[in-house]
Prior knowledge:
mainly alpha
Amino acid sequence: xxxxxxxxxxxxxxxxxxxxxxxxxxxxxxxxxxxxxxxxxxxxxxxxxxxxxxxxxxxxxxxxxxxxxxxxxxxxxxxxxxxxxxxxxxxxxxxxxxxxxxxxxxxxxxxxxxxxxxxxxxxxxxxxxx
Length: 130
């Protein structure tokens, strides 16, 4: 009897990280953005820098907890959703100003990405334990 021929797939498979990791990486960008985009001295108010650093730290922490303790993080997975909404609103609430285009765009785009990653993360954390 002939043995079936096993074919090797020549296509590489794409490994997608868990959504909690993507949430944490988004938070890491917020920690780096004020320095990478040179907020200081470019007309960006200090509130934008403080906002990105504080929000980034909380997002990184929440993303890491959601990644390494997914069963315990159902309630915590809502935190990045709220922070995503805050990032979208912050440039207007904190009045970043006309000279803060880099900070405004960074917060708006990061907020939208975080909203997507946090929603996927929330959906994948499963039902709450009772």
